[in-house]
Write a structure and sequence with these properties.
Oligomer: single chain
Strand content: 5-15%
Shape: elongated
Structural class: mainly alpha
Radius of gyration: 34 Å
CATH class of the largest domain: Mainly Alpha
CATH superfamily of the largest domain: Intergrase catalytic core
Number of domains: 4
Distance between the termini: 128 Å
CATH architecture of the largest domain: Orthogonal Bundle
Largest sheet: 3 strands, antiparallel
CATH topology of the largest domain: hpI Integrase, Chain A
Number of helices: 16
Order of helices and strands: EEEEHHHHHHHHHHEEEHHHHHH
Length: about 400
């Protein structure tokens, strides 16, 4: 847990005031006996600078003969102007070093898969800085112009990332700079005012049933690729995301009369997902004795690229595509209601399901039309049969033919 360091000032063995130094450390890093920060030279240098400023101000009061005003003294230190803050840093660190420090700080509060996404984000920013020859750029030098340039680089031809994913990468950088401001590395966040609009998802990338069958029927020579393909298919048939896939257990299986289903709180929302266990889900799970293989998200995504290549799927297949595929097939192929799909996905609100999956696809329109066409044909056939039946009854009910003739 991170806590602030407080400065307590005594005069003639009497406490005359205390105030936060604005420096935060993990409890294990504070040595109360030596009154110093261990295992973090950068923060320790900040603390030493704080002490020097306090002594300097105290000496100033003594030389001028003024009475010591503790509140004024502490306010000067705790609320320094920009010039004072600029002089606080004894050693300046690069932007990449600050981001690495931010990642370590966050690692104590986040899950492993989130930590992996931070690693990926750092790789992207390092690649961008390398492309513009600014690997040693300082945090204060990364301005809004560079931030927008970074965003354009992410969505450009070299990477071709989606708008919302690129937006999250820029916001990660923004959070790292906020952390730098809190740690007095920079006076202010140079990209604090940056705004990149989030776009609505008009098209959900997912696999069709035919593409799923290709993966299911393909016999991979590599055991590793076969395991990764099975895990992906398990996602497509359950809607589990990567984190929940890694933590699913046999104890999550529940039985309700004639149906077995998975009941599991999602790692992300803590909402319970209720997923029917189909024959395909059961077959994959039984294949691994209800103990699915585990791979890092990056490893699994790398394997999925090869799987897509082998099965001739012209889409960017990732672990999250499996979850989207489950939802789209359930809604558009089998006509399952949004309410039921929302419960199966473990969404916090049905609005989330509507925002992502409510748009009709070409396949759903064809399926609905075919169903309507079938119903129409059945109705027409029923009407024809009824008409023929009625004609037959009319013929049977005709009165005997009467012929009149004149006789001599």
């Amino acid at each position: 847990m991170e806590s602030p360091i407080y400065c307590r000032i005594e005069l003639d063995n009497c406490l005359i005031g205390d105030r936060s130094t604005g420096i935060y450390v993990i409890d294990e890093q504070w040595n109360s006996k030596k009154q110093e920060i261990i295992d973090n030279p950068f923060l320790q240098s900040k603390l030493e600078e704080f002490r020097l400023m306090l002594k300097k101000n105290h000496l100033k009061y003594e030389l001028t003969g003024e009475s010591i005003n503790v509140n004024k003294l502490l306010n000067k230190i705790n609320n320094p102007n920009k010039d004072q803050l600029s002089n606080l840093a004894i050693t300046e660190i690069t932007l990449l070093s600050l981001i690495e420090e931010y990642k370590i700080f966050k690692s104590r509060k986040i899950k492993r898969n989130t930590f992996d996404t931070y690693e990926v984000a750092i790789r992207h920013i390092r690649a961008y800085l390398s492309s513009i020859d600014k690997l040693k750029i300082l945090p204060k030098e990364f301005n809004e112009e560079l931030a927008y340039s970074y965003f354009e680089w992410l969505v450009g031809e070299n990477n071709n990332f989606e708008n919302n994913y690129s937006r999250r990468l820029v916001l990660f950088l923004k959070s790292a700079l906020d952390y730098g401001k809190k740690k007095l590395v920079i006076v202010s966040n140079p990209i604090a005012e940056i705004e990149i609009k989030k776009t609505k998802c008009d098209h959900v990338v997912h696999l069709t049933l035919e593409e799923l069958n290709r993966i299911e029927n393909f016999k991979f020579a590599s055991e590793h690729l076969q395991k990764c393909a099975d895990l992906f298919l398990f996602q497509c048939y359950t809607g589990l995301d990567y984190g929940d896939l890694n933590s699913i257990k046999i104890s999550n299986v529940c039985a309700e009369e004639f149906l077995n289903f998975i009941s599991k709180p999602r790692n992300k929302t803590k909402k319970t997902a209720i997923i029917p266990i189909t024959a395909k889900v059961r077959d994959i799970w039984e294949k691994y004795s209800y103990n699915l293989p585990k791979f890092a998200n990056a490893t699994l995504n790398k394997a999925l690229k090869q799987i897509a290549l082998f099965t001739n799927i012209k889409k960017r297949v990732t672990t999250h595509i499996g979850r989207k595929t489950f939802a789209m097939i359930a809604i558009n192929y089998y006509g399952i209601s949004l309410t039921a799909v929302s419960k199966m996905l473990g969404h916090g609100s049905i609005r989330t399901t509507e925002d992502f999956y409510a748009k009709a696809t070409k396949e759903s329109i064809v399926n609905e039309f075919s169903r309507l066409n079938l119903i129409t044909c059945e109705i027409n056939h029923s009407i024809e049969n009824r008409q023929q039946h009625n004609v037959g009854r009319l013929e049977q009910a005709k009165p005997p033919k009467t012929v009149y003739e004149k006789r001599a």
